[in-house]
UniProtKB/TrEMBL annotation:
Belongs to the cytochrome c oxidase subunit 3 family. Keywords: Cell membrane, Membrane, Oxidoreductase, Transmembrane, Transmembrane helix. This is Cytochrome (Ubi)quinol oxidase subunit III. Its main location: membrane. The chain crosses the membrane at residues 31-52, 72-92, 101-118, 138-164, 185-205.
């Protein structure tokens, strides 16, 4: 019987990861997986809309003219690095290294803020030359897709900060371990979504 099965069936498996040792916490993690499935549907719809509308520029700026290769490459590097540091915070949690958890989680938050800063600069530069959502269907789809991802990242940053505070005050226990594990699941999901944005939106935009 697996560690998760032992937890859910009430068997006290001391080898189970800290976040899964309490059956109530394990159920909450399962519920979060279901939530992420619904978020996948949301982003799937936004990607489909973008693919349909990306050529509808109405004579306005195109992706080839707008997208800055160094800019979106830096965003990608920063966000993928933050996923790595987030994973290290989970690893430290499972090794009961609270100080390391706080260090890696803080670094993840800072990287997330850097990503948002670059994205805000990108949007501001587009708007400054008249490339607003109202200009064309392409820009509406672009700002909606990338902006929705950016809002999710912003929520993730706030969530990680609150988790960091709880770990500092209460230490590592089954509840705070579950919260850390879940917020990192969320963060990794956003990184996967960004890989699709990087490929479908930015790379294809500068090539086509």
């Amino acid at each position: 019987m697996s560690a998760l099965q032992n937890v859910l069936s009430g068997h006290g498996d001391t080898e189970a990861s800290l976040e899964y040792r309490n059956p109530h916490q394990a159920v909450k993690i399962t519920g979060f997986w279901i939530f992420m499935a619904t978020d996948m549907v949301l982003f799937g719809c936004l990607f489909a809309t973008y693919l349909v509308l990306r050529t509808h520029t109405d004579g306005g700026p195109t992706a080839h003219h707008l997208f800055d290769i160094p800019g979106f490459t830096a965003e990608t590097f920063i966000l993928l690095t933050s996923s790595f540091t987030g994973g290290l915070s989970t690893l430290a949690m499972r090794n009961r290294q609270q100080r390391q958890v706080m260090i890696w989680l803080t670094l993840t938050i800072l990287l997330g803020l850097a990503f948002i800063g670059l994205e805000v600069q990108e949007f501001a530069a587009d708007v400054a030359i008249g490339a607003t959502m109202q200009r064309s269907a392409f820009l509406s789809a672009f700002f909606t897709l990338v902006g929705t991802h950016g809002s999710h990242v912003s929520i993730g940053i706030i969530w990680m900060f609150l988790t960091l505070i709880q770990i500092a005050r209460r230490g590592l226990n089954e509840k705070t371990a579950r919260k850390l594990f879940v917020v990192n699941l969320y963060w990794h999901f956003l990184d996967v979504v960004w890989v699709f944005i990087f490929t479908i939106v930015y790379l294809s935009g500068v090539v086509m």
